[in-house]
Every structure is written in C-alpha cells, then in structure tokens.
Amino acid sequence: MTGFDFDQLFTSFSQLKVGVIGDVMLDTYWWGKVDRISPEAPVPVVAVTKREQRIGGAGNVALNIKALDAQVQLISVLGQDDDGQQLTRLLSNHQIQSDYMVMSNNRITTNKIRIISRNQQMMRLDAEVTTSLSPDEEGSLMKAIENYIQNEKPDIIILEDYNKGVLTEKVIHDTIALCKAFGVITAVDPKKKNFFNYQGVDIFKPNLHEVREALQIHADDVHLDGLKNVHVQLHKKLLHHISFITLSERGVFFDNGNEAAIIPTHIRNIADVSGAGDTVIAVASVVYAATNNERLMSELANVAGGLVCEEVGTAAINKTKLLQECKKLFNGISQNNDH
After folding, report:
1. pLDDT tens track for 8-64
2. Is 278 a catalytic residue?
3. Which superfamily does 6-25+69-81+97-106+131-329 belong to?
4. pTM here?
5. Pick the catalytic residue: 27, 155, 189, 278?
6. Contact 251, 264 (CB under 8 A)
7. Which of 53, 72, 87, 152 could join 65 via S-S bond, C-beta 3.0 to 4.6 A?
C-alpha cells in the first residue's frame, strides 16, 4: 500500500451508513468482595461494590462501527422490559441509532450477568429467550428492515448471529433478497444453527473452528491450498462473493475466487481476545463498503483485531490508534480502488 492515503480513507468512513441486524444483549457486571461463606448454604457471599452495564452481542459490532465514525443503525427484537429500556438508553448514550428496533411482549431482552470477585468470574446468570421469532415478530422485524433500507439507503448491512433466535431462516433469506434488490452490500458473522442459510451474501466471516465444524474438516494444519479448498466448498453451498475467515493467532484468510491470501497476525501483547471478532467484522465491513477492496479490508481488519486484543475486556476499536498503526505498518500495499 505504498503511498496509500489512509487519512482520506478514514475520513470517508463518516459518509457511510451501516445497518447491524441480529441478536442484541445487555452485558451486566457485578463486582464485589468475598470474605465469608453463607450460613444458608456452602456458597461464597459476594458483597457487591460496583455494577456496570454494557452493550453486547450485535450491539458491540455497532459500537465498533460508531467508533470508526460511520453512521450505524441497530435493528433487533427486544423485550418490552426494564432491560430493553436500559439497552435503548445505552445505545442512545453511545450515539447508536435504534429507530427501527422492534419491541415484543413475548420475549425478554437478553441479559448476561457476570459476578466477579478478585478479578475472577465466579458465576454467570443468563436471562434470555433463544427460541426463534414468532411469525408475527418476523413480520414486524422484516417491515422494520424494509423501511430502514428504503428510507436510509445504507451502504452495507451486517447480519450478526448469536443463535438467540432473531435471525430466522426467513429473516436471513428476505433480508439478503432486499439488499440485492436495493444494491446494499451484505456481510455475515454466522453461527452454527444458520450457517448455510446465508446464500448469496457478499462477505461471509466465520472463524476457522466454525468452518471446520460446519464442513466436518478434521485436518489441523492451516495452509493456503487447504483454505482455498474451504472457500470452494463454502461457495458450492452459499454462492457468496468473499470468504473471510479469522484464524485466531494466525491472522485472517480471504478468498474472492480470483485472489486468495493468508494475512498473518502482527505481533501483539495479547491481554484478552473477547470481542475481537466483533471488531474484525465491523472494520472489514466499513473498509469494504468504502473501497470494494478485499485485500485492504482483510489487512485493516486483521490489524484492528490485534489491537483490541491488547485491551482487557471487550473494547471497541480506537480509530486514531488504528489509523496510526496502519500508517506505521503499511506505508502502503498496492491496491485497486473501485471507487
């Protein structure tokens, strides 16, 4: 990218409109001290000293997109409950738009409560409904998605699947069809249940473990020919455009049918890998929407994933830090910019 103008690219992000559709959740943290065992049962008593709530699931992808200064709309189905109201407030505080959010009386808002003492998670309590949306809820969600696409004309839509029931087969199929009709790029972060339901998407981003499980591949080595074969197998089932596979500490792989490469990770002091996948799909989607360049998308998303792993806990990407890192690492990979 020698001589590539990263400043111009990063400035252009603010012009992009990105929709994130999928399973949104509240991440709740209770920190406390343990000094005694309960007299009622042989369990520790946690004296809670601090509470915090964060945006989780597909909301964390939206947080990363907002951190890049792109305009982001989060669309999901929340429960008509206190957790849903709190999540809506948090989204507003972070300037994440949720105008097309669907509220349901039949579902609760997913809330994962982590109880932590002495820097260790002692217990997690999950309040959630993981059954698929009802036909009525599917209809309401599809109406919201259709209105969003028609009214806002997004550049790209990310389908963010956590197997919590929002992305049903019908929602997936109808959303991809709508995006094709309106010329909207689609990116997917799939999970096991719907893995092969994302036919015709532009960017398909599983991790290596998910791909091996879905295709029943048992080989453990990671090499270019093997991954190119994975793309061929995926393409037979999905007829998608780009395979973009995260390889954990080995970096990322992309294949668009014409060009394929493994992009190795840059050496980092890894503190915490949680949330890295959310950052990778967010950065990849924004860069691809801005440039239509698969290699550039992969290079920058790879750098971003490494940067957030240096932070403890789930952290959104720091745009300034990412820009500085890109300038330092690539004073430039030659590229074909379609825009």
Report:
1. 999 999 999 999 999 999 999 999 999 999 999 999 999 999 999 999 999 999 999
2. yes
3. Ribokinase (3.40.1190.20)
4. 0.92
5. 278
6. yes
7. 72
